[in-house]
Write a structure and sequence with these properties.
Low-confidence stretches: none
Distance between the termini: 24 Å
Helix content: 40-55%
Shape: globular
Order of helices and strands: HHEHEHEEHH
Radius of gyration: 16 Å
Number of strands: 4
Number of domains: 1
Structural class: alpha+beta
């Protein structure tokens, strides 16, 4: 992967959030917090896992100490660290350990998005993997209380995953690429 400027990484991630996550309704809960400006975007300058772990801990503490009305969720974009998916996937254990160490289990959790995301048991090019493919490696810091509220509002939350797979399958790889080609046009 090429190294983007922080501004480009941020813009690419906003476009992905708007066009795919919200636009394709991959997360039916994302739009409400996005339109209320309750999503914090942080582009990390970390170049190795240790630096990223420090920044993740700081962002988890900040989110825990901030009112949900101000910041409901955080996207920690890290385009300079963990570019290989296997390294990123291994780091998720570190992320979970940080949540535990900070005694935030049950309050916050970390979800994973990566340009080469691959679900266990799928092929590299399986279109279903695109439900979790972001332009740059990204850790999504989520409040458990927000998930609980969203699940109450969307009683069949477990069906979201299957619906997302169907959505990206219908769209296909060419449709996915076209989605972002249109976003790149002036």
């Amino acid at each position: 992967m090429q190294k983007p400027t922080p501004e480009q990484a941020l813009e690419d991630t906003r476009q992905w959030l708007e066009k795919a996550v919200i636009g394709l309704n991959l997360c039916p809960f994302a739009k409400s917090v996005y339109v209320k400006n309750q999503v914090r975007f942080v582009v990390s300058d970390a170049t190795d896992p240790a630096q990223l772990a420090e920044q993740l801990a700081a962002e988890l503490k900040l989110l825990a100490d901030t009112s949900p009305e101000e910041t409901d969720t955080t996207l920690l974009i890290h385009p300079y660290a963990l570019q290989r998916f296997l390294d990123f996937n291994e780091f998720l254990d570190v992320a979970d350990a940080i949540v535990d160490e900070l005694e935030l289990e049950g309050m916050l959790q970390v979800a994973a998005f990566h340009p080469k995301f691959q679900f266990d048991g799928t092929g590299v090019n399986d279109i279903g993997n695109y439900t979790n493919r972001s332009p740059w490696p990204t850790l999504h810091l989520i409040r458990e209380s927000s998930i609980d509220r969203a699940v109450e509002a969307f009683p069949e939350a477990e069906a979201i995953f299957e619906r997302n797979i169907e959505t990206v399958t219908e769209l296909g790889l060419d449709g996915w690429k076209a989605l972002f080609a249109e976003a790149a046009k002036p």
